[in-house]
Amino acid sequence: MANLPVQKNTLYVGGLAEEVNEAILHAAFIPFGDIKDVKTPLDQATQKHRSFGFVTFLEKEDASAAMDNMDGAELYGRVLTVNYALPERIKGGEQGWAAQPIWADADTWFERQQQEEEMQQIQAENRAAMQAAEELHRKKMAQDREGEKDEDSEMKDDPMARAEAEVLKQNNSS
Asked: Which of 6, 32, 102, 107 could form a disulfide with 92 if both were Cys (CB 3.0 to 4.6 A apart)?
């Protein structure tokens, strides 16, 4: 499931007892702030709620306070689970919004696939460039080390260079 944005003013309330209706749920949550809406979705076969509901507050802060206080609380002998609600979903559809037909996101899906492929290609090119730069750096370092060895061997063959090196050593040590 994709990461859907939570609705910070709507709470999911799970673990409802059979006797709990929307009025009781409203009464249980009203102490925390003004409530915009209360829903307990019904099971189509039994016409009873499915032991969960949604409470939507006008203010996010009120929803947060209600969640902090009511998660784990008891109502009609049942322990409640209270979390931020996720947006409604329908089967299919990448976005998962209930008001959208399944095919509504087909165009954006293709665009996202193309962008993903382009990103992977750019990343592969960047990796190749970094490897080439590292290889070039290693070769340069190796050449520099070879150059230092060449300078040492030149000094052995050049008496003047040896004498200058000896004077430098004496000046540095004194």
From this structure: 102
Q: Outline where DSSP puts E strands in the chain.
A: 7-14, 35-39, 52-57, 74-75, 78-79, 81-85
Structure tokens at 87: 């947006």
Residue, of 44 and 39, whose pLDDT is higher = 39
Q: How far apart are CA 145 and CA 50, in angstroms?
A: 76
Give me the amino acid identity at 117. Answer: E
Cα–Cα distance between 99 and 155 in angstroms, integer?
84
169, 163 Cβ separation under 8 angstroms: no
Gap between the terminal Cα atoms of the chain: 74
Which tokens is 51 given?
Answer: 């032991």
- pTM equals 0.49
